[in-house]
Amino acid sequence: MARRSGRRKKTPGGLAETPPASHRGGSPADLLGEAGRLFAAGNYGEVRTLLEAALASSPEAAGASAAEAARAAHDRLELRYVLAAALVQLGDHRTARAEIAQIRESAPEHPGAALQEIYIEKAEGRTRTEMTHLAAFIAWLEARLAEEPPASLAAYYRKFLAESWSLLGSALTFSGRAADGVSAFLAASRAEADGAQSIAEYSNALFAINYVAEEQRAPFAGLLADFDKFFAETERMTHAGGRRTHEKIRIGYISPDLRRHPVAFFLLPLLRFFDRTRFSVFCYANNREDAVSRTMAQQPGVTWRSILGLSPTEAAAQILEDEIDILCDLSGHTSDNCLPVLARKPAPVQITGIGYMGRTGLSTIDYVLGDMVLDEGADAPEDAPLEGGARKSERPLRLSHSHFCYMPFVAMPDVAPPPSLSRGFITFGCFNNYSKVTDDMLLLWRQILDGVEGARLLLKSRLFGSEEGRAIAEERFWRLGLDVARIELRGFSPEYLAEYADMDIALDTFPYTGGLTTCEALYMGVPVVTLKGRTHGARFGASLLQNAGLSELIAEDKAQYADRAKLLAGSPETLALLREKQRAMLLASPLMNFRQYVQEVEAAFEKVWLDSVPSS
Prior knowledge:
By secondary structure, this protein is of the alpha/beta class. Helices cover 46% and strands 10% of the residues. The protein has 22 helices and 15 strands. A 7-stranded parallel β-sheet has the order 5-4-3-6-7-8-9, covered by helices on one side. Helix 11 (262-272) links the parallel strand 3 and strand 4. It is globular and about 85 Å long. Mean pLDDT is 91; it is low at 1-9, 16-26 and 378-390.
């Protein structure tokens, strides 16, 4: 139930998770097996301790035959490769490079050495270099495969090829080339021999499509519907009503993000304020636990289960044993998602929502949690009927108000005055993930900047934390005719909330809008202008603003988006008033009315549960 994102971390690319049968029992093979298991579990420090000791204490055996010496040299090389991979994960790039150099002395073309160098480039933010080397490495691997090597060597190359395509998909998406990223993830899925990983890469592609501009999505039509085919042979669990041994409705929340993560902000109200006389709540965490996890697990009446490391079948069996009535997926196609668990139908009613922006393509999911803004109108493309009649899976489950409730986990900074009061010019801004910024969005922002004399644009995202990342973005801005001198780029920082004091007006992205970032901007007194799309996912921003009582900031088209941004910029009195009143408005709105939200969700749960129970 995990995947590369960093992609899915199993064993390092090209290394078998279990030593081949012919090599079991030998010390190097045993070490490789143990190191692989530790690596897959994320215990990189233990891998380092194990392998540094082994490499320091295993001199070449005297009197060995040529074949034995060659095998021993190969094993030591692979041990050194796994050590280098662990060092990269630990962030010790200097020592990792030293190990890679030793590998290259013996095997200049060792694919693992090349791959770990690329991982170092990724970690250091050298995105352009990473993409260049990935393209060259992929070409080299494909050339080796074209030579039709022996089956074992071909499988070895394909493993590296799949991982390289996945890394390229991630880098392309990260740098604002989401359509190319989707194609790379699909190539990774096709190249991947591991079935679970192939599903994960396909899921990566489906997630990346959300970043793609609507007019560029035609080549990917049908991909969502095809996701269900991965599970055509998966046995679905049966739910005999007669075996149900509990009276309260049992709700299960399953996610890899039950930790310090935006999903936790939105789930916490449902854990704190649920009606304990009518419901029992279980949480299934596919993640390592942190302080936020412990806070959630300690909520009265919540049963907490870690499913990290379990197979989808094992996790589904636990959910079935717990007699969960309604299982709520909170991650969709996001990283380390649990969709393979839901494909086994461990609960009679299954819902997805909160942590994802639309349908998953799984026929075993009954509903998508939404609201009257997200799911307004039956003609929305995402809600079109399936072939053969009305949709039987992933039907919209509409709440009367917001589909999620914002509850900050951290102490928020005080609201600061609009910076334009002291600077004399308007600063537009966007702290959304740069992957969400399409060319069309940039052209629209250029139009806004051109229409507001002296205005600046402040963008903040991880890509801008490195010189190469900033260069990639600035070249794109020049290509689209934006004045780079009027744009400030900032990398990620933990204290980013205070930086809303540097922004007058937030500009939402489209079609992948902001979620938590929009809530935070509003709470910090910064008005957000959003464009209302035609689909569930493209209306997140509109739903947030409608429920915050700021519907006048919702644009129906691009022209209106630009007009509303420019109108706000020309009204310093309005900006000052919003800065003063907006946090109080938010606190009094449905967006932060946790009791109303929980009641609406529980009413929806009761309805779908009653609808699922056969009438006697």
